């Protein structure tokens, strides 16, 4: 920033002086090398190989053969792919319902005086717990015969269901767990956003006679909108990538619901690592990447209409 | 210039550091380390005892047993093989074997086995046949399993039903299941999951059908095979088994251990777990599977296989031969973990659990059929629940489901 206002001769002087203290530009490259090498090795290279493989027929072992867009045409004609895409979309929509919940909860926690940290920790616990452990526990909760949920429902006279063995319910059941798991991180982001709202706005509005609810909609929500936007974008990206909950909660040999409950990443896993069809799997991954990019782009477009930057 | 040199020097130092980091694990004492991947915690002690026995004979070799979780076992192995970092020795299953053998990922130990003077007749032929590709040996059988009826004596006694025996036919099994089913007590006569190895493959062969025909194509839609499937779908239609949804939430073996089902047709590999449950142990009985047109049981077994890309092929071959040899078989038998494949070592397994009539599983070898494998078996067996599920749930009749599944299998095989 400051260099913009420095006149050209002055800038030259600075540089020369720095040259005496700082090493040659090569050092700069060396310093960023670890990060750069990591990025290339773990992101760029895998992406390029995946992209390449998506145009090939790759057997379990050994080199693949180039097949052009065959994988993509097969994919677009595959009912299971569209089903998986629909499931992922439904799951994402359910998780988005969790955003308003997180906003309200964040605002409520902000009202809490002394115990605020405790609430934060409680809501954050699922975030730092292994997803597999969480899934195992929820699998017990959802068990049709011995599960806690059906027991509680029976107390109020609602008939129990096989929540993770009946395709009518699976995505919703998993969605509830997804919301619960992501709540903690969303609360942290939203909580930080809430603390950035100047207190005097509330005081001023209170003097003008605004109630709590009105304050929430007229002050909190607009000023929180950048954080809400961030949370929404992150939620959509992670929801579209959901795999572990299906893998642990639904995978059982006798689960007839699994076939209708696969998400896009689960389908990818199954193709690439169970059926050893890596080319097809790679094509799924590339399509998923495009879906996520499109969803994110769309959100950035739409944010102009509702996100309020001061 | 000067800076440039310094920069290169630093890069060289970094590179050197990286190089030493890589070679550090190699060690210079001439000791060879072999990794041995398995998926069973139950069998870990036995596998470690085998590794130890091998190390005692080969002081320069260190064998490290790794237990990988079952859900990730095959993907880990596949990624490892593709990335040249697979374990040296590992357990192999028949339905996964063709992909690995065809992909040249397995160490050919034909010559080493011959040189060591191993008599292949010591292994059940049906198990060897499962892993036969062009007459080459890519490992030796570690164990084998056959199927029988696990039944709950207490539930039989309570319902006043005679225990299953070797005279039983399908009708006897069905009649008993009907008498044993007691909805009020939450007890079912039998567990009827979609289970190829312990369940419907057996009944298909008992009815005289086949899963894969002699022409190498699917044959699961033949009238005999369909009647084998109907044995199971009928149990559901009659309400003699927990529903598929129940069996999805709670595995059949768990239902059996919870004493909710009186009969569970499955493999010898459950013996150790059922025996380990003190409360359950006195109630457990074993009988041969019921017969229909003929007697039949699937036989399968794990292969001790080696990775073709190993750094120590000679030592690895020695270990594989040892791990499937007589000494290792005796160790396995004593642990009660599984039925060892090596001939005449099974008595130790029977003696380890004298209260169970486990001889049923050894006798079953006589009428056993190798698990049907063809082509990309892991792929088409992965479709079974999708295609057969509707028949089990009564939404489709067995013949229609079998026809659809048959077509799906053939599509995979044609690829």
UniProtKB/TrEMBL annotation, chain B:
Pfam families: SBP_bac_1. GO terms for cellular component: cell envelope. It is found in: Cell envelope. SUPFAM superfamilies: Periplasmic binding protein-like II. Keywords: Signal, Transport. Gene3D superfamilies: Periplasmic binding protein-like II (3.40.190.10). The keyword Nucleotidyltransferase does not apply. Residues 1-24 form the signal peptide. Belongs to the bacterial solute-binding protein 1 family. This is Sugar ABC transporter substrate-binding protein.
